[in-house]
Specification:
This protein has one domain. The relative contact order is 0.08. The chain is mostly helical. It has two helices and no strands. It is a single-pass membrane protein.
Amino acid sequence: MPSEETKERITKVVDVARTVLHYGWIPLIIYIGYTRSSPQPTLIKCVSFSSCKLFRY
């Protein structure tokens, strides 16, 4: 059986990982879409989402 201290550490690691995943998921998807698109749009065009081909269907 793990000790109480080990359980607390695991719980804290899971909480931190959950927070990182929660706030980092959408920026990761946008970054992957930006780097994998062809032709790669400029960042200035992507600030205006309506003119960025990355977000068009």
